[in-house]
Design brief:
The structure holds 3 protein chains of 3 kinds. Chain A is an alpha/beta fold. Chain A contains 12 helices and 12 strands. Helix content of chain A is about 30%, strand content about 20%. Chain A has an 8-stranded mixed β-sheet, with helices on both faces. The radius of gyration of chain A is 21 Å and the shape is globular. Chain B is an alpha/beta fold. In chain B, the strands form 2 sheets. Chain B has a 6-stranded mixed β-sheet with strand order 6-7-8-3-9-10, sandwiched between helices. A 4-stranded antiparallel β-sheet of chain B has the order 2-1-4-5, covered by helices on one side. In chain B, β1 and β2 form a beta hairpin. The radius of gyration of chain B is 20 Å and the shape is globular. Classes of the chains: A alpha/beta, B alpha/beta, C mainly alpha. Chains in contact: A-B, A-C, B-C.
């Protein structure tokens, strides 16, 4: 099977006000198979939102893609012109933004906002557009689709707004959906519902998804593969069962350990000190030699300060960037 | 190091809430007045040095509860007792005495701190308003506060916008501690943070409770973190407490449907056994 | 509906309050119309007293106010001493002349400010935007008086434009088309002065409002859906930026009768401005009150219009006001 989206050696930096270049993503490479859900795990400063934006070239004005290619169906998205990009965005590749309350137009009815997406890519007549809009809404809202489509964003709950964003994303039948923290501001129950909506759509429409989150627990039983980002680099990438159950990279391990596990451990572990990762993920703009996780790593060695680790293949599908595994 | 609060038989509750009711009146689009019952008879007790977690979905009334307890809203009915004294309907002067003892930390670190002030000014403000400290005394307290919450002293000149989410929450905690409160209300204080940062702040909260004897009211929809931090858990649904009890009991033997649903909705990360031992 | 009634009620209260205050202040100001006559040794004090009684100036203030209010209900606004005629028809004619000027210049100023401000906001920080900002800043600094006088000098020196007034001598004899042409020619200079004085502020506000919106996340999200640029601007950005602009528009309407006073006086345009000025200097009480009330009516009406427009345009305001 050929990857539907192939990211090759992506390097993105931001131009700071002082004039220097601050790296946000370095040597990011991975492939997305058709119908696959790829979970991208990253905390603040990892470059996950930059990754989402750079795939459809929707970055702030001071961003610079300095190297790499994003292959989608024989087109390199990084070298496509404005017209080709506009055709692809929303129609073949959709991006679901963070914060549904901000990503929707405040004074336009949500039904109209979905209709606009359809109108931008299909030159259908008015009634055909309305019919299609209704169908899209029925897919995402099992009940009350009509009432919701006539509402304004501020009249809807957080979960409902998120579903509207999903409706906008799938309206034109894309093959890839990139979701940037789609459940961040939601309740646990609503989170589960939204994950269910995504699973449903994957089954019905065969969507491939890149699901970006900072909470590894969400990817359990949901993602097929997991990619861990730290400081703009790929720390680990592999099948979800492997990475989530037995992570190899020290960062991934430490991250999973810092999550309270009151449910799994027997006995009373309340109020014990969680094995939190010391320090901050805030990065300086100075170029660093060596592994970016080294200052906070409990398993660091001398080489970690001197050189950057390269990707090591632990198995056919599981890679990790750490000196511990370099033979 | 485990921190367990010992609740003596004769210890007085720090906070007691009886039948708290909060009603909001609004007009529907048709013009008819509608009432929204945010709190429908909430009662509970919190003993000093312990943590009570209030969990529920959005709309269950937990944020309204926080607002009423912090004297930001006045309840429609019911009573709130703090250290044995009723504080529900106090006049301004008495309220001003009680307020420093109950502090709130909010969810969004970005919007609860004034972006135009420096860290120094943010921390000094509550101390200056107390009007009983000299300049040197204030400076001294600020450095000890920063140390206590694990912030390095050289951030005093920076603005809160330059700090990370975790640092901002630490700053918010430091500012709350400046007034030496007895009760800290944490309204979804960890929800907007990354997982690893949540762990750091949770550790800080546990440590502060051990060293200062702080009492926490931890409001959240994250049952896992609530279960980790709390001695008792109260589950709220539509303005009422539907289930309340010791944290372990709620987790292992939930009785109400709401609780069961909340438990089922918690995303779990199942680590392979060898890793659990580390 | 409730919202509308509430706002109307407020507006009426405001107008009533203004009328009381104006009455009070003008009556309290030292001197009356007849003080000029007192200086004239040929007119005896009895004549003056009789005239004062005739015009009811010897009655107490509250009574005069009540008389004036009752005549207002009948559609009259008192009597002008200087022009020796009822005030209402006088005001209507002058107000019409002023509105001719101000409506034209307001429409023109907005028609220029909207596209120019949008165009400039899109290119924020780059050379065209910087030049425009500099230009409008300079215009803002130049006093309206200097602008008007400068234009007059231009008219005199070049002879292209009439140097004042609304109509040429022999206006009545012209054909309807030529009448129109004549008035239009006379309008060119004052309208230019008005547009030049109001345009800079409008431009800056439009530019700021649009620039604010251009950064909004929902625009970026719409771009991500492949919405074409034109739709983005007119269907997404402009409506979202409308709120501050609608308020500004309401303000423009409010200024329709009061904003052009200076220009009218300098360019001898027979509008409300010069009339009001004369009346104040001559203590022509009822003209002053009538004129001020007229202007206030427009001001209050303009704000009310803006509020209603906002209510219609922004669903969030509708929900919020219904919740109160």
């Amino acid at each position: 099977m050929i990857a539907i989206l192939e990211i090759q050696d992506l390097h993105v930096s931001y131009r700071s006000s002082g004039g220097g270049l601050c790296p946000a993503l370095t040597s990011v490479s991975f492939g997305l198979m058709p119908g696959e859900i790829m979970g991208v795990l990253g905390e603040s400063g990892s470059g996950k939102s930059t990754l989402a934006g750079s795939l459809v070239r929707l970055l702030p004005a001071n961003a610079r893609i300095t190297r790499g290619a994003v292959q989608f169906e024989e087109t390199d998205l990084l070298r496509a012109n404005a017209d080709e990009l506009r055709q692809i965005r929303g129609r073949r590749i959709s991006l679901i933004f963070q914060e549904p309350s901000l990503a929707l137009h405040p004074t336009m009815r949500v039904g109209e906002q979905v209709r606009q997406v359809l109108a931008a890519h299909d030159s259908l007549g008015k009634s055909a557009l309305n019919e299609q809009t209704r169908q899209v809404f029925d897919q995402v809202f099992p009940e009350e689709a009509d009432r919701i489509s006539h509402s304004y964003p501020h009249q809807l709950s957080g979960g409902q707004r998120q579903r509207v964003l999903i409706a906008q994303a799938i309206a034109c039948g894309p093959s890839v959906v990139i979701a940037d923290e789609p459940t961040a501001s939601l309740d646990p129950t609503t989170q589960m519902e939204i994950l269910g909506v995504f699973r449903n759509l994957r089954e019905k429409l065969g969507l491939a998804m890149i699901f970006i989150t900072h909470n590894p627990a969400l990817l359990c039983g949901f993602a097929d593969r997991v990619l861990v980002l730290y400081a703009g680099k790929v720390a680990e990438c592999g099948p979800a069962e492997t990475v989530l159950a037995s992570p190899r990279h020290p960062y991934t391990k430490a991250l999973f350990h810092s999550i309270p596990t009151v449910f799994d451990r027997p006995g009373n572990t309340r109020k014990t000190k969680l094995p939190a990762i010391l320090g901050d993920s805030a990065r300086s703009s100075l170029p660093i030699q060596g592994c970016p996780f080294e200052p906070r790593c409990t398993e660091r060695m001398d080489t970690c300060k001197e050189r950057e680790p390269t990707r090591v293949n632990l198995s056919a599908s599981h890679t990790v960037s750490c000196f511990k595994y370099e033979s | 190091m485990k921190v367990e609060a010992t609740i003596g038989k004769n210890m007085q509750p720090l906070l007691r809430v009886e039948n708290l009711v909060k009603r909001y009146a609004k007009r529907s689009l048709a013009g008819t007045p509608e009432e929204f019952l945010a709190l429908d008879g909430v009662s509970f007790t919190v003993f000093p040095g312990t943590t009570l977690a209030v969990v529920g979905e959005s709309g269950s009334g937990k944020s309204t509860l926080a607002a009423c307890l912090a004297c930001l809203e006045s309840p429609t009915a019911g009573s709130i007792w703090f250290e044995g004294r009723e504080i529900t309907k106090l006049e301004e002067r008495a309220c001003r005495q009680v307020r420093p003892q109950i502090q709130v930390i909010f969810q969004d670190p970005a919007s609860s701190l004034n972006p135009r002030w420096s860290v120094m000014e943010v921390l000094a403000e509550p101390l200056i308003l107390q009007r009983k400290f000299t300049r040197e005394e204030i400076d001294r307290r600020i450095s000890s506060l920063l140390e206590r919450v694990g912030l390095s002293p050289d951030i005093v000149e920076r603005s809160p916008t330059e700090l990370s989410g975790g640092q901002r929450q630490r700053l918010a905690i430091a500012r709350a501690l400046a007034l030496e409160p007895k009760l800290l209300i944490l309204d979804e204080a960890l929800s907007a943070l990354d997982c690893s940062v949540q762990a750091q702040i949770a550790n800080l909260l546990v440590e502060l409770q051990g060293s200062l004897g702080m009492t926490y009211l931890f409001i959240t929809h994250d049952l896992a973190m609530a279960a980790h931090l709390a001695d008792e858990i109260a589950v709220m649904d539509r303005g009422r407490i539907v289930e309340q009890g010791q944290a372990q009991k709620i987790l292992k033997h939930p009785e109400q449907e709401t609780t069961r649903q909340l438990l089922a909705a918690v995303p779990r990360l199942t680590l392979a056994p060898p890793l659990l031992e580390q | 509906m409730r919202y509308l009634l509430r706002r109307l009620g407020h507006a009426l209260l405001l107008l009533a309050g203004v009328s009381v205050l104006t009455f009070l202040f003008t009556a309290l100001a030292p001197g009356t119309y007849f003080d000029e006559m007192r200086m004239n040794p040929q007119i005896g004090p009895e004549t003056i007293a009789a005239l004062r009684a005739q015009y009811g100036l010897d009655k107490p203030l509250p009574l005069r106010y009540v008389f004036w209010l009752s005549s207002l209900v009948h559609g009259e606004m008192g009597f002008s001493f200087a022009y020796n005629s009822p005030v209402a028809p006088l005001l209507v004619v002058r107000a019409r002349n002023t509105l001719l000027l101000t409506i034209t210049s307001t429409l023109l100023a907005w028609a220029i400010a909207l596209p120019l401000g949008t165009w400039s906001a899109e290119r924020m920080g780059r050379l065209p935007d910087r030049l425009l900002s500099l230009g409008t800043a300079m215009l803002l600094v130049i006093p309206d008086l200097a602008l008007a006088l400068g234009l007059l000098v231009l008219a005199v020196r070049s002879g292209w434009f009439p140097t004042g007034g609304m109509a040429s001598v022999g206006f009545e004899t012209l054909s309807p088309f030529n009448k129109l042409r004549d008035v239009a020619l006379h309008m060119i200079l004052p309208v230019t002065a008005l547009v030049l004085s109001t345009l800079p502020l409008l431009f800056r506000h439009v530019r700021a409002a649009i620039a604010d919106i251009l950064d909004a996340p929902f625009l970026l999200a719409a771009l991500g859906h492949g919405i074409p640029k034109r739709t983005l601007l007119y269907r997404y950005a402009l409506p979202a930026a409308a709120n501050p602009l609608i308020s500004l528009f309401g303000f423009s309407i409010g200024m329709l009768l009061s904003g052009s006073l200076l220009i009218e006086v300098v360019m001898s345009w027979p509008g409300l401005g010069p009339l009001l000025l004369e009346a104040i200097l001559a203590r022509d009480l009822y003209v002053v009150i009538g004129g001020i009330l007229f202007s206030t009516f427009f001001l209050v009406g303009g704000n009310l219009f803006a509020d209603l427009l906002l209510y219609w345009a922004d669903p969030r305001i509708r929900t919020e006001s219904n919740a109160q």
